Amino acid sequence: MKLLENKTALITGASRGIGRGIATSFAKQGANIAFTYNASVEAAQALEKELEAYGIKAKGYQSNAANYDAAQQLAADVLKEFGSIDVLINNAGITKDNLLMRISEEDFDSVIEVNLKSVFNLTKAVIRPMMKQRGGSIINMSSVVGLKGNAGQANYAASKAGILGFTKSVALELGSRNIRCNTIAPGFIETEMTEKLNPEVVQGWRDSIPLKRGGTAEDVANACVFLASDMSAYITGQTLSVDGGMLT
Ligand code: NAP
Q1: The pTM of the whole model exceeds 0.85
Q2: Does 45 reside within a domain?
Q3: What is the span of the domain harbouring residue 47?
Q4: Are 87 and 137 in contact (CB under 8 A)?
Q5: N or C: which end of the chain has fewer CB within 10 A?
């Protein structure tokens, strides 16, 4: 028996990086996958085909996570197509790094809207159907930076720390409805994005991590499988760090 059989998961920002890894791991565990992206139409179409090869139903939706109305429409469309939403993974996120002296109001607002308001938008859209279904698991993607802060990332850190408070509040409000809500805080995860960085800097990061390597999208995806599955039925309101011991 696969861990996510008979469940439908809605994953935001799955055209690449961590979200893509989550979609693939979920498909392997038997989940049907609705996923979103912002602009990567071709990558999304390729992912749809790749996921379907695991014998599950998969569909990509171009939907701006920062837009409230678009999120409500997305949830309605997914429900119509898939019949249920059992797992929501709020993964879509962006960075607009700069020293506070240089962060523009626009770059502060856009990071908060894509990273934090998006979590409100879709969580609000799925809780009614989850209540009707008498259960659901919501997983929000924070970051080690949300726990610790980071110079040059005040906007990003604020958005990721906001997710922690939001997650705990949802867990408290909706626990009685059997809706669980948890956060994952990845550390340094090596994706296409990090391939472009200075190799010496990246090696320095690896050396400073107790497990002596960067994480993979699959490392994060495995934690998501656990929190989405009934294996974690008694876990809510928690933050699970997937960081190789970085914050320990
Ligand atoms: P990534 O490779 O840059 O991918 C971001 C994904 O989000 C893409 O699929 C992108 O779609 C989508 N997206 C961006 N803006 C969107 C919007 N407005 N509406 C809908 N989708 C949108 O990022 P990643 O490294 O995989 O990170 C995924 C999540 O993990 C983020 O929340 C990030 O903050 C968090 N995280 C990452 C790390 C790390 O080391 N990588 C560490 C801690 C936390 P398009 O392809 O269409 O642009």
Answers
A1: yes
A2: yes
A3: 8-241
A4: yes
A5: N
